Amino acid sequence: MSNISLKDQYINKTRRDFLKKAGAGVTTAMLASGITLMAYPDPALAREPNEGVDPTKRWGLLIDVNKCTEDCNECVTACSQENGWKLDGNPAVDSQWIRKLKIKNPKTGFEQTFPVMCQHCANPPCVDVCPTGASFKRADGIVLVDKHICIGCRYCMMACPYKARSFVHEPLEDQKSHAPRGKGTVESCTLCVHRVDRGDQPACVDRCATKGHGALMFGDLNDPKSEIAKTLATYATKQIRADLGLDTGVRYQNL
Amino acid sequence: MALPIAYSSINSGKGFYATLALLAGFIAAGAAAFLYVEHHGHVVTGMTNQIVWGLPHVFAIFLIVAASGALNVASIGSVFNKKAYKPLSRISGVLALALLAGGLAVLLLDLGRPDRMIVAITTYNFKSIFAWNIILYSGFMAIVGAYVYMQMAKGMEKYKRPLGILAFIWRLALTTGTGSIFGWLVARQGYDAAIMAPLFIAMSLSFGMAAFILVVKYTGKATGNLLGSKMTWRMGRLMGIMAAAVLYFTTVRNLGNLYAAEHAGVEEFILFSGNIFTKLFWFGQILIGGVLPLVLLFAPNKGESSSRVTLASVLIIIGGFAQLYVIIVGGQAYPLVMFPGMEVSSSFQDGVVASYMPSIYEAALGLGGVAISLLIVVFAMMAFKLLPRDMSDAALDPHHAVKAK
Ligand code: SF4
Ligand code: SF4
């Protein structure tokens, strides 16, 4: 189980559910599936998820720019701690899954800051261009890179309109078992898929709330009763570069 | 009419072993660079999270684009039935294959995970133009390989032309596909334009012709089998027309971009801001790669000159590299526009022009790819009878030569 790729696991999960229902048992499902060249032990992935990927959901974030303060970098720190990437003094090549952006209107001088990460597009260009299918979108809208299949061509980085992706330029150490990374592959915000799958919210959202800002809201965009869906229904919100029609899962309020 | 053309292989000539040794040396350097980058990661290259495709891609795409153009001579011979070009079809096909192989080698060796090449070949995402390109490249290899084989095999006459036509269509698709790698990047202000496909076709015709002329002329000179000056001039003029087409599409593309508000920023950045890309564009691409060759080839009252064709070919290749550098690196250096009209800053180099300094490893890898292409050509010329035994005007095109007298 531990040596199959994320995507296979996702596919197999569906298959497994089917087999379970068909009474065929759990143990059979693992052998088929594509190519896996490097295996790593991964307890978080190896567990049998009780709740699989639910295609009726569309996970998303709402970022209230007014609540985000300029000198705060907590969401970035939280992500870095949670997922094991760090800014190591070489910002041109170090991975950054999430970054604080500052925009300024040159005419009025008005400034805003807010975090930008993978926008978990419903029509993700990174997935469209990826030659191997390593970039993929889960049924619940989370866009991921399967580090087992990624060949490191970086075409997805060329295609992403948000510069959300980083290429791992150096050998890695101290990886987190729940957030596998690999030299020579591309990575980006996973929406803390490991936390979401166990019913928690992403680390950035948690941290922002603990610090008393509450600028980030996580939830199911498809569920009209969720807080995020209600807020989206009530207030004006934006998608960055909405003109591209990518239908991002990350939305901004007061931007 | 003309006697059947006799072909021969080569195994010696002036500087034969020196050429082999030089090429082998470049390949060894490329291999060393590859292993070094593979071990240490791409951090030792000049490439970053902003400039994700660098010098290796300039080389790779140059070679791939030129590959399709190197087939010009074969196409003119078999598709457009021009007799004088037919004897050069074999070498034309082989050069096309060799350039493609060299380009793909660079592309694959620059991958973050080159050990997973097999994944690239076996797992397809059919929505990806990249994946389509892999199919286009493999098909090109197969078709041109078969075409060259038919040229050399006996009793295959009737297949030559249909295969030639298939190869012709395929190469157009291949170059369109390569151009589309960029044309389809909707998010990048520097690339998103349908004109990329015809531009790349024109580039391929001109770069490939230049490479073909240089390889055949050099080989002819080294083996004492000089390419006829009339033939050289004809090919040179053809190359000139294609170089003019490149200039034309470049102008259309850049003017179009200047008028489209969304692209105006990156266009001004390339054309006028005075950075390295501006210089490469005006001096490298336009002057060296466009205007000078055209003057050399079309200036009135100058007469025909084989050496001016050589010089023009060299200039076109230099200009081609400059052009691809501007397109590939320049397009990425200009900051991605996420908030039009706003000033943007971050720790991830948002809103700033990304700098790129190619490393020696990237250059070695790219040059290694060129050397792979050329070494394949040399080996093929040793193993097979590719070149006409006599490349003089009289032998290639008796009719034309007589008329000219
Ligand atoms: S933001 Fe970029 S990386 Fe994320 S899904 Fe969209 S295109 Fe892909
Ligand atoms: S770098 Fe990896 S994820 Fe990105 S396009 Fe290439 S194979 Fe796909």
Characterization of the model:
The complex is a heterodimer of chains A (255) and B (405). Chain A has 255 residues and is of the alpha+beta class. Chain A has two domains: 1-52, no CATH class; 59-253, Alpha-Beta Plaits. Chain A has helices spanning 6-21, 43-46, 74-83, 125-129, 155-159, 193-196, 203-210, 227-234; strands spanning 59-64, 98-104, 111-117, 135-137, 143-145, 166-167, 186-187, 216-220, 237-238, 250-253. A four-stranded mixed beta sheet of chain A has the order 8-1-10-9. In chain A, strand 4 (135-137) and strand 5 form a beta hairpin. Chain A is globular, with a radius of gyration of 19 Å. Chain B is an all-alpha fold and 405 residues long. Chain B has a single domain (10-387), classed as Formate dehydrogenase/DMSO reductase domain (Formate dehydrogenase/DMSO reductase fold, Up-down Bundle), CATH 1.20.1630.10. Helices cover 70% and strands 2% of the residues of chain B. Chain B is built from 15 helices and three strands. Chain B has helices spanning 16-40, 55-70, 72-78, 89-109, 117-122, 129-152, 157-183, 196-222, 229-259, 261-272, 276-298, 306-333, 360-383, 393-396, 398-404; strands at 7-8, 343-346, 387-388. A two-stranded antiparallel ribbon of chain B has the order 1-3. In chain B, helix 8 (196-222) runs antiparallel to helix 9 (229-259). Chain B is globular. The interface between A and B is large, with 57 and 50 residues. The structure holds iron/sulfur cluster (2 copies).
